[in-house]
Amino acid sequence: MKVKNLKIGSGKPKIAVPITGSTTDEILKQLNLILKQNDFDLIEWRIDFWKQFNDVNEFNYVAQMISEKLEAIPLLITFRSFNEGGQTKLTEEQYAKVIHNIINCRVADLIDIELMHPKKLILPLIHLAQNQNIKVIQSYHNFKITPEKSEMLEKLDQMQLNHVDIAKIAVMPHTSDDILNLLEVSNSFHHESNLPLISMSMGNLGKITRVSGQLFGSCITFGTVGNSSAPGQINCEILNQFLNTLN
């Protein structure tokens, strides 16, 4: 899959770096710091960290500034719900409104739309985004456990039935068996489906899954420049060295 000039799903996993600023100044400082690096492929703007995410005018203004600075670098915009590790609690209707605002701004190249929400809310948003040439990543996060393999595969199958562009699953391991289960699910889905996949186990125990995507089918991994957006993320320079070595 091609997003701007970036080919996702071929070669080594692409590195996404999160922006997690809580103010506009912090967001722009983080962005400028990231842009001094060469070891990443796309930016994820985590707007749930930002205090003004609900101000449509301010959102449009900042989003345009980010887009202009990125030029050919793809921009993924994500609002992560509180129940899946995000910073802010919203009702279902409020979440749908935020996603709608992101789509209508028309600067995102990719958007994260969570699986956990009712289909009657998210299916129209998926279609709206795709009609505006925004690629949809549908995601499932579990910060407590690694579910059974059958449950993880069921989540990924649901995403495929929703006709999204990329499926994403991130779970919390407690044992090495949890790691193996996540990798087995990834490998199986990668070989049986045409849908690009992002998969990872979180935390220190799960770091191995953030560098093994080329073997087990995960097409994007998340690295850091400064602050992380999830436990277990690796500095993007070190992460890129791992990926190049394994490649």
UniProtKB/TrEMBL annotation:
Catalytic activity, reaction form: 3-dehydroquinate = 3-dehydroshikimate + H2O
Pathway: Metabolic intermediate biosynthesis; chorismate biosynthesis; chorismate from D-erythrose 4-phosphate and phosphoenolpyruvate: step 3/7
GO biological process annotation, one example: 3,4-dihydroxybenzoate biosynthetic process
InterPro entries in the cross-refs: 3-dehydroquinate_DH_AS (IPR018508), Aldolase_TIM (IPR013785), DHquinase_I (IPR001381), Type-I_3-dehydroquinase (IPR050146)
Active-site residues per Swiss-Prot or TrEMBL entry: H141 (proton donor/acceptor), K168 (schiff-base intermediate with substrate)
Binding sites annotated in the UniProt record for 3-dehydroquinate: E44, W45, R46, R80, R210, S229, Q233
Top-level division of the source organism's lineage: Bacteria
One GO MF term attached to the UniProt entry: 3-dehydroquinate dehydratase activity
Pfam families listed in its UniProt record: DHquinase_I
CDD domains (alphabetical): DHQase_I
Function: Involved in the third step of the chorismate pathway, which leads to the biosynthesis of aromatic amino acids. Catalyzes the cis-dehydration of 3-dehydroquinate (DHQ) and introduces the first double bond of the aromatic ring to yield 3-dehydroshikimate.
Family: Belongs to the type-I 3-dehydroquinase family.
Subunit annotation: Homodimer.
Protein's UniProt name: 3-dehydroquinate dehydratase
Gene this chain is encoded by: aroD_2
